[in-house]
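Continued from yesterday's entry.
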Amino acid sequence: MTPVKRWLGFPYPLGATWLGDGVNFALYSEHATSVDLCLFDNMESRQENIRIPMTEHTDQVWHLFLPDVRPGQLYGYRVSGPYDPKHGLRFNSSKLLLDPYAKAIAGRIEWGDEMFGYVVGGENEDLARDFRDDAWGMPKAVVINNAFDWRGDNKIARPLAESIVYELHVKGFTKLCPNVPEELRGTYAGLGSTGAIEYLKSLGVTAVELLPVHAHVNDKALIDRGLTNYWGYNSIGFFAPDAKYSSSGDMGQQVNEFKSMVRNLHAAGIEVILDVVYNHTAEGNHLGATLAFRGVDNISYYRLLPHDPRFYLDFTGTGNTFNLLNTRALQLVMDSLRYWVLEMHVDGFRFDLASTLARDANGVNKLHAFFEIIHQDPVLSQVKLVAEPWDVGAGGYQVGNFPVLWAEWNGKYRDALRSFWKGDEGKIGEVAYRLTGSPDLYQHDGRRPYASINFVTAHDGFTLNDLVSYNEKHNEANGENNQDGDNNNHSWNCGA
């Protein structure tokens, strides 16, 4: 091991923080017995070049300051502790882990059985630990410098009642927009280009709602079938803009490119709302890979079955549920939200499966700490907060039930207008409610009609063209047997 200067460092802030004279590393893990920081010279390194034990831990945070480390440094963690899935413990120091607070992530997973903490195909499934190293195929976290010239960028703060929100996918929109320079298509820079902005302005759009741009994973099962997770609802990094949409590189350049996009959109009077997925992660169920949270502290970051913590509570349909009943996991979500507002200058969030975020042992709770923290926060309480007000668990459909400060995707508006248009009887009264601001949902709880985000179709289920062309979905190309998206939609019966 190469000698390296080190100091004890600080337990806050969490993550890797460039302080001008070195980098502070801080990782929360309540149940770990030891943590090693792994430094890599480049992405071609199949093994860490330096491994440094983090001997200091304060308030369940392992921390270390390295005066010789600079922005651009690649790193990961190896976390030791019991491998005891029957008791919810899945530590495996053979596996390199991403920092849950990574601000940038370089590279993509090169899938192999080594990415799983257990012996794939073994007699006891996930109960037998896999001791093979996986650093060769894992992405790496990147230390960044937050400095950026915002050129006087100011918050727009347009009222929701005056907002026209355009949901788009960074890659899909810019690939197909002929106004975007060809070399910038598919990227943040393309969305921030003059051609894209002029097109959005011509539509009267006042805000773009970006489908997930948090760093996300293409599952091994999809890769094996020659597919990808196109929409991006499979997050692995809640602070890192996905490098797949970067035209400038993945060694931190993606962060500045994202900031430049926001700055350009703001200059044109267009706000930026992020579709964020905090309800689950890309690590899946008990047979999923060990990439970050599971290996850092499985019990803390995930909700487990109380009577059998080998298995995960799943209110999301993805195999796991992020544990917002844990103080540090909840802190991570709030730190992420504030980071995107304060450092990345976004204007609001659309929360995927938001009912899951408010679940406690008794179900969806309007008094959940998730709401309470946001409501009292001087930063987050002042941005646009939009809920997808449902999940797949019992009692998860909560349209009209979110508290003040929150707008909602109004699924009842969608369903009523579709049903009326295709000729269902007895829908006039409900359509009148929907077109007049859904007062049955929003008039009596302190909110106004603009709490209803009215839409007819979105990324789930049907494209707008398919919606007016078919009775049933025709998404055959994605290989999901038309089981993707919202399967309760009523399509418009317009022939063909």
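--- second protein ---
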Amino acid sequence: MNNEHETNLVIITGMSGAGKTVAIQSFEDLGYYCVDNLPPALLPKFLELMKDSTNNIRKVALVMDLRGREFFDSLIEALDILGNEDWIQEHILFLDAKDEELVTRYKETRRSHPLSNGGLPLNGITQEREILDELRGRSQRIIDTTILKPRELREKILKIYSEKNEEIFSVHFLSFGFKYGLPIDADLVFDVRFLPNPHYVANLQPLTGLNQDVASYVFKWSDTQKFNDKVTDLLKFMLPQYKKEGKSQLIVAIGCTGGQHRSVALAEYFAKELSFNYITHVSHRDIDKRKGH
């Protein structure tokens, strides 16, 4: 972050379930050398190897997943050592979320909290928060992920930590209606007019693909499921190639007849599906257009 010979070390820590996995993936995309779940006691040895290494690593991100008081004490000792080193600049990123949201996330994933010892998740969360309270106050940046989706957390981290001149690759999914013309700025176009059309279902006709009933109708067909699987596989193969070529943004257009139902639901689906590996955006060009308007 300062002189070119200085190594930047970001330590990612915080509450379990607050998004450390998404964070480390984001730093990896920013070109950081990343190590997930490094025991704090090994940090001094890791730094020693880095200092003696002949490689040119200048950006490192480490996830410190604290599972108990002994881990916390080891990390505090390691941070004190870092404070005396002039060749490295450390930065602590603390991820947090409200207790209610953390409990909900553990229930959704059916995982137990690492400190709950088989008990209630809230007991483990409370214990972990007490252990991490001092470290939270020592952090240079705190991100509250309570209301952030994984994609939004990813975008936030990339915005904060990307270098000024660094281009970040993103994918923009655009829904449209063929009756209003092809989008002129699309890189890829997928025609989904072959899928069953909610327009012909009376109670769905006035709604859009943002409505859950419409989305459920679109996705319940086996043809939709096959299409989603094949396009997802295709994009996962193609996107790294576009990124390698030097593109900073790829616009993927998905079209149905009127741009109100099928294309909208699918654009939302692919934006969410790819958001774990890329910055994704979604917009709906013709969602509010109606016949006669």
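The first strand starts at residue 7 and ends at 14. The mean pLDDT is 85. Will compare against the first tomorrow.
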